[in-house]
Structures are given as C-alpha cells and as structure tokens.
Amino acid sequence: MKGVTLVADWAPKPDFVLGPKDMQGKQTYLGSRVWKNPRIEIREYDVPEPDDEEVLIEVKACGICGSDVHMAQADEEGYILYPGLTGFPAIMGHELSGVVVKAGKRSRNKRTNRPFESGEEVTVEEMLWCGQCKPCADGYPNQCEQLNEIGFNVPGGYTKYIVVPSRVVWSLASLRKTYSGRDLFLAGSLVEPTSVAYNAVIECGGGIRPGDHVVICGGGPIGLAAIAVLKRQGAARVILSETVPERTEMGKKMGADFVINPLKEDFTEKVLELTDGMGGTLFLEATGLPTVVYPAIEQVIWRGKTIECTVVIVARADAKIPVTGEVLQVKKSRIVGAQGHSGYGTFPRVIECMASGMDMTPLITKKIRLEEVPENIIQLRTNRTDCKITYVAD
Questions:
Q1: CA 198, CA 343: separation in Å to the nearest integer?
Q2: Are residues 205 and 157 part of one domain?
Q3: Do 173 and 270 reside in the same domain of the chain?
Q4: 347 within a domain of the structure (yes/no)
Q5: Structural domain boundaries enclosing 301
Q6: How far is Cα 340 from Cα 199, in angstroms, rounded to an integer?
Q7: Can you list the pairs that 268-272 forms with residues at least 24 positions away whose Cβ atoms lie under 8 Å?
Q8: Nearest to 234 by CA among 254, 252, 208, 259
Q9: Does the pTM exceed 0.70?
C-alpha cells in the first residue's frame, strides 16, 4: 500500500539538549530545533496486522492539518516550523475516519464493551497516550510522558490501512442518524480537529456561561470549530478576528455573530464596541502569531468591564508572548495552554454534538486523492482560501 511519508534530516541546533523522552536520530519533542530539510515522499508499505488489543482500520477520509503543513515547511535555516513531538520518517495524517477491517480479541468497542466487529465506522484519537504514567493516571492524557502521535512519529492516515490501539478508537454509529455514505466519513474525519477546539475552550479554558461574549483569533479549522462549540454552549456574541474573506464567510456559517479584519480595523476598539464595552469572557489564540495577537487581547481585557477573562492558546508557535502581569492581576484573568483532545469524554461528546445538529462538514472545501496530498500540503503554505482539504479514499 502507498503512504504519504515525511522525511527529514536529524541536524540538532547547537543549543539543543537531548531530553529524557527524545531518541537520538529518531525522535524529539522539540521538532523545530532538530529536523532539517523536510521532504514528502510516497512510499510503499506492507498492510499492518493488529495485535490482540489493536484494530486494523481501512481509511476512508483524512484531513490535512496545519501541523502537517508546518512539519513539511522549513524556515530560512532549513528547520521545520512545527515545534512539537516528531519522529521521521513517518506516514503523515491524523484527522481520520474509516471502517474496521480486523480487530484483536482483546480490543474493546466502548459502545458495546465487546471486541470491534468488521464493518463498523470509526474515528481515532491522534494522541496515543499510555495510560500508565503519572499524567495519564492523574487524568491528563494529553500530557502523557510516553506519548506517541499518529502521523507525527508513528504511521498516520494518508494511506489505505492503519493499525491503532482500540483504546483510542471511537464508534461513529451515532452519526448514522444524520449522515450516510461518504458524508459520514467526512464528518468523522472532523471529530479530531473539532475535539481539539472543544478541549481548548471547554476543558482547558473552562467554558462559558450562556450570555458571555467570546473572541476567536484566527479562522483556521480549530478557530472555526471553536465558534460552533461556543455558540452551541450559549455564547451571546461570538466575534471572529480574521483577514481572509473566504474564512470570514466560513466563520459566519459556523455561527460567528461579528467579524473583525485586524488589518483594516482596530481590534481592541472594535471588540469593545461590539460588546458595549464589556470585552470578552474567553479569547482563543488560534493564529500561531501570539506576539502580534496577544497585546491587542490584553488591551481588551484591561479596558473591558469583564472580570476573570481567560485567554486560551491553542496554536503551536515557538515564540515568547509579551505579557503584562499587572493586567492579569487587576482583572483577575489568566492565560492557559491547550494541547490535544484526549480525555474528559471529549471525543464522544463531540460526536454526539455532531449527531444532534452541529454540522462541521462545511469546513471541508476541497476533496483530493491520496496522490494529491503532497502538493496540497505544500499549497497550504500560502493558500488560506481553502479551509479543510481532505483526502477521500476511492
């Protein structure tokens, strides 16, 4: 079978120190400080076999994520832009859905508490948490100390078949109420990115009360998914800050009440105007440009009437943020980080939201074949008119 594979050179920067979870020449938690000269190849692989606690899935759809783009994109020195866990070569792709082909005798379908049966439609968590380290035992699987990530350091979904532990596989049976055929798998491929947004604004950010105002900075798939989640939670005014017209229109489809173009309008003044001077209860930084975005958010917090604001940082960026502690102290506000999507019942809750009317499929603006994945990953470095480009199996 063919697999879209990312290859790069192990070339640590002079200040890089091998960490306890890094593997010399193979894997690091600081990708942008180690991997150089990324390139995408389509390689041939054998069909994998599941062990007793694993599931073999035939991939039906897999979306391209911004992380895929940044892993394959180099800076002026040749280093990849993605700062996190990476181990190459690896088949890329982690926003996937498909059909169970074969399951180990000790695999468990959380819907039935029995082994998975062939033919069941499923989606998969991208983060392969161990369940045994202290963060996992404490209920923080996204911070697992033995973490593997599908498409980052273990084989991903830009291929025909993938084997994963049954503990991270979720049935899409609920979606049959709303979707059928290919549409079910397209919706299923959006569970993972929507769960990232859910984890950021609900679990890490603490959610909101109905009637609160929220501000989403960045109209990529995560920011757009957060709009849908927060509007469903009861946000009174959802404000999207975005510069690309196609993405602002998509934001409106997802439920944004107002859109700001920060290149043409004063972000701080406009947020205060749209909220009658209140500002926002929750801000999501989903641009990957925190040094640009955060100072304006901070001014809204300082000048607004809302106390106990939360700024959630979900976009990955190797950058230091200029923070004024006095603002956070006086306004009793906070900055929190959000990584991943696992735990807290996030996947099943997102699936149920989608099954009961939260339609995320408009995010998919282009469908492609497996052979077209490399060129579209490269295209997304500069093209922001498409929202979600998704590989759909024949």
A1: 11
A2: no
A3: no
A4: no
A5: 200-337
A6: 7
A7: 268/296, 268/299, 268/300, 268/303, 271/215, 271/239, 271/300, 271/304, 272/300, 272/303, 272/304
A8: 208
A9: yes
Could you read off the pLDDT of 68-111 as tens digits, one per residue? 999 999 999 999 999 999 999 999 999 999 999 999 999 999 99
Asked if 213 is an active-site residue, the reply is no
Q: Examine the residue annotation and report whether 67 is marked as an active-site residue of this protein.
A: yes
What's the length of the chain? 394
Q: Which of 32, 70, 195, 341 is catalytic?
A: 70
Catalytic residue, candidates 32, 67, 97, 195: 67
Predicted pLDDT at 327 = 96
**Which parts of the chain sit beneath pLDDT 70?**
none
Evaluate whether residue 344 is within a structural domain. no
Q: What is the pLDDT of residue 306?
A: 97
Give the distance from CA 202 to its chain's centroid: 14
Q: Residue 313: name the closest of 302, 297, 325 by CA.
A: 297
Convert the pLDDT of each residue in 243-297 to its tens digit: 999 999 999 999 999 999 999 999 999 999 999 999 999 999 999 999 999 999 9
| Number of compact structural domains in the chain | 2
173 and 99 Cβ atoms separated by less than 8 Å: no
Task: Check whether residue 333 and residue 378 sit in a common domain.
Answer: no
